[in-house]
Amino acid sequence: MPTVNLQELMEEQKSLHDVPAVAVGSSVAGARTTATRGTAEVTAESCFRIASLTKVFTSAALVRVLRDNGVPLGVPVIELLPGLAPDWRADKSLTIEQILGQVSGLRESVDAATVKALGEGDGALLEAARLVVRAGNEREPGERWSYYNGNYFLAGSILAALSGTTFESALEGALLDRWGLERTGFKTPAASVAGWKGSTELPLLGYPRTRRPSGGLWSSVSELLAAGEELLADRALLEEIRRPRTRSDDPMAYGLGWALGPSGQMYLNGRLPGYRAAMAVIPDRDHVSVALANQETALPALARLLSHIQQPLTGDDIAKAVNDFAA
């Protein structure tokens, strides 16, 4: 099987030379290789904010809990969140599969500031979901792909409802604990890496509970590789997640929480002030790759890096696709 030198590939990305901390890793059939660079001392265990890569975990956890409870993905969302019925202005046929696949057609009117203002209480996420469905639909469910975090406010609320607890506890019990991910979570870990904007170090701030299903996790290269390996090992879960939910005329092919590449790659990126994260999985080659940086502007280089890592396996240049993904 073709191999690549991660350290050499990283050094070739000149725009990464000014990034304080970069960590990258790959796993092929469970055999891992990692590399780091930068002025900050980081390892494959150091934790970065992974932003929209959180959707990978929310989606996988919800699909697993649905499976465990015998609930099909085609069940209408309103049946699992009946408390929202009095405020429901969205299409009542909207399914779990459609929100996870970003083809809900929901009106994208609920922004980050609005849901942050709902506070940090246990019921705040459900209130964010209420705002999402109260806004109604712009188009028929399934008609067109469009990236909207509101879909995942609904997904997180369903996961919490099915588990009878908070979203955070549900995610931990359904997935993080089962996959042995001890350093992946919403609390700022001891091994956290501070984000930077240009030459300024940013303070370590909390992340609103209402937005956590779409982007609140901390994780590391080693734990993201482990998550990819666990996903590859659960073939039933993997096949459900990698199946496209988009149409041929959509802006991209998309499964449940993942964009889909020309050779079956699953990929995405995430961004928050001070951080960039990107990840790719190639199910048919038993491959996982991850790149993390503590500079938001690092994405083009991280995308090229991931593309170079997987290119010997697929022959595809996916750098533009990873860079352009709408996280």
UniProtKB/TrEMBL annotation:
The keyword Oxidoreductase does not apply. SUPFAM superfamilies: beta-lactamase/transpeptidase-like. Residues 16-298 form the Beta-lactamase-related domain. Pfam families: Beta-lactamase. Signal peptide: none annotated. Its EC number is 3.1.1.103. This is Serine hydrolase domain-containing protein. GO terms for molecular function: hydrolase activity. The lineage of its organism: Bacteria, Bacillati, Actinomycetota, Actinomycetes, Kitasatosporales. InterPro entries: AmpC-like, Beta-lactam-related, Beta-lactam/transpept-like. Keywords: Hydrolase.
